Amino acid sequence: MGNSNGQQSLLVLDQNYAYQTLKTHPVFGEIKLYKHSETGRKIAIINKQIFESEQHNMKQETYLKRKSYDNINLLKVLGFQKLVANDLCSQIRYLSIQVEYYENTITQFKEKFTEKELYYLIFSLCDAMDYCKQNNNEITDLHPSKILVTDDGFVKLVDNIVALEAISNFHQVKYNDRQVEYLAPEQLELFSGLKNKINQEKANIFCLGLLLSQLITKQPVSDYYLEEFVNLNLLFKRLDQKFAQYSYSNSLYALLKEMLAHDPEERLSTKQVLAKKQYHHFVSNLDGDSVDFAEHHQPDSILQSPNSYYQEEQQVSYHRKKESILSIKATNEEFQIADSSLQKRIDLALAESNKLLDQLSVSSPVTKFQSRATINGIYDSVQNPLVQLTESRIKRLIENSEEAIEKSLIQSKTCM
Q1: For 165-223, how does the pLDDT look when each residue is reduced to its tens digit (9 = 90+)?
Q2: 335: left (phi over 0), alpha (psi -120 to 50) or beta
Q3: Residue 157: which H helix or E strand, with range?
Q4: CA 315, CA 323: separation in Å to the nearest integer?
Q5: Model's pTM, two decimal places?
Q6: Residues in domain Protein kinase (predicted)?
Q7: Whose CA is closest to 372, among 382, 363, 360?
């Protein structure tokens, strides 16, 4: 490749840092990893190629400003250096950036989170997102892979500047770099052209709600995406079960509902979430010995103990028995399906699907899991006030399902 002007060693904090390995990281790309011989602290060197000299200067200014960030919830940039590599008749310019390095992402750190830890996550990540937005560096891809955790339990969010590529969550899915997940309902409408602009902050809050649901239920959020909508009914069914199992409070459940509101106009903003900070117990990090910030609360604002919810019969509980579909229809006329033939098609699709699932082999192009998720997801969603779909969109979904069933029947007959 030729030689390089500038030395990587200049980026290392001191001589106690020893080179460990070269590895490919899903967020940072190719990195060189160094480790402190005494403290065990790790740092990573990220190389970002710059193609134009003007862009190179702009990047230097960007990283100079980024290095000055002062927020405990953001991954820290420790230094950067301009490098030029001579390659035959050309020069390759790039910046070498030094950042803190932590192995664990939020989904790898621990199996079960206490309610106080979940509040810590909500407020810490909202604080980091708000800080970035104030510095014209709005987060556009809130994803578990970009939420790192230190060994002592502090959250570190990776922002657009530090990540190898500043690609939004929408474009990650659009370009098939990621399966359909961590997208707000209005972002899904960008695909169909129903929308051409969204409020990224509100989309981030929805994604944060999805993250909390994944940490609580241990189920991938990709399970909730069916065609052009998010099956919030299934999501909250799973949350109901876990809230009852872990005795999480109604207050946390209510906050999640506000974060996961289908309509972005009804969804909380980052500052609205942070405004709730004074009313809740939370801890200083995710370590078992972390400090409880209860001193921030007035006595009447401290959460009740979980067991008290079982004793209050008059209180509407998160784990109450779900109303029947007939009851929902009777009391919520605005959510009824006007076209009775459409309801018959839904019922028929559900019946035919379940019948078909018992006959299909594992090798069928439409697996049992996928078929059941698709049909039941549509059936649940059209009955669910949380997911309001137009009849035309419901019809398209049903048509797709009917087509899938027909193809599977043909396939199953061929295999017999």
Answers
A1: 778 888 888 887 888 899 999 999 888 777 778 999 999 999 999 999 999 999 999 99
A2: alpha
A3: strand 155-157
A4: 16
A5: 0.68
A6: 17-283
A7: 360
